[in-house]
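User: Could you check the structure of this?
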Amino acid sequence: MLYSSRPLCVAYETLRWLGHKIFFFIHTQTPVWYRFDQKHQPGDAVKETLPLDKNWYRICRPLYRHEHVYYDFDKALQVNPNVKGIALIFFMGIGDYLYTTPMLAALKQKYPQLPFYAYVGAQFDRNNSPLVGKLLEENPHFDKVFYFNGRRHPLIWKNYDYREAFKDIPEGFLAVPVYYEYGIEVEHRVKSLFETFSLPVPEQVPAPVMYFPQQAAATVEAYLTRARQGAAGKKGIVFLQLDSRGSNYVYPHMKALGEGLIKEGYFVMSVTKGGPTDNPDYLEIDIKKLSINQTWQLLATLKAECDLYVIAVNSVFWAASAGLHLRNLGLQHWIDKKVHNLWYPNIEVVTNYIYPLLPREKQIFAPPESYTRHNKKIIDYKPDWVIKWFKEKFEK
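Assistant: Sure, the predicted structure tokens are below.
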């Protein structure tokens, strides 16, 4: 009932938070290896006062709204030599997962002796994509990947219902939901992840890390053959991803944009439907035949052979383009004052709002005549303007 009624959930969570504030002197006692809203500091005294039972290995209560958790596995190992591994619990989308990859690599480098198991939500919802599990299966830092039936919280995304994951988590494994902070005051999501897991925060935000099989699948090879033929004699390839699950958006001018880029001398590829598929210089990727990781492998191979560019709305290919080291004309199709959490230096951001926390030289201001209203929140950039900005930035 609580999960199905947002108003009831809001009332309950508000009362729970008020109780926490009113009785602030009653603190939740946690095991030494995690803390609520308090970062671990080097040199902290380590003394465990809680029993090392099964509850010691888990988060002891749901989080309050805007609350965060910080982990320190050094402390866990110091007080409990029986820790046998780390069970990382994922309830996120593909783009969200990409931001975690540098942190996961650093975490495994720090704790090579511990097995890492991944637990992934098995259903599509506003928070979660089970395709994250397929990417984790390619990640060499994980020994096993499991799926669980969970459910999103209607108000607090960090309180995803992952209880069913516990049935597959072995005894002695720390159960660790993968959290990050996302807000105006956060410098970048990747840095937040490093802070969450008490890892040294890199000065420069590292790009996502992608893992591909050594031998490309037959379907990837078939698309490679088609793309190589199409790109022969062209200025290069422009890859389009102009839909977003998070904002429930699909760019309405796919055909005009595709035709315009072809007219400018490019071969065009897209994972967003609606383009000029009858044009031999346009290739729409069938996501039912090619997985997301295979699509990235396809682009990584093509990048080594020709000039390759991305035009993408703020979605998974912002992170993916950084991981692939591709120049990206990023269409910010709605005002999000937290967008600096997601930005990488390879992205030239087209926007009708100048963001003070993004480098000004990386923002292309869109005048009112360059877009129309999709709805009250979202705008549609006109194809001729998108092509104009693309040429200005990438044909110099």
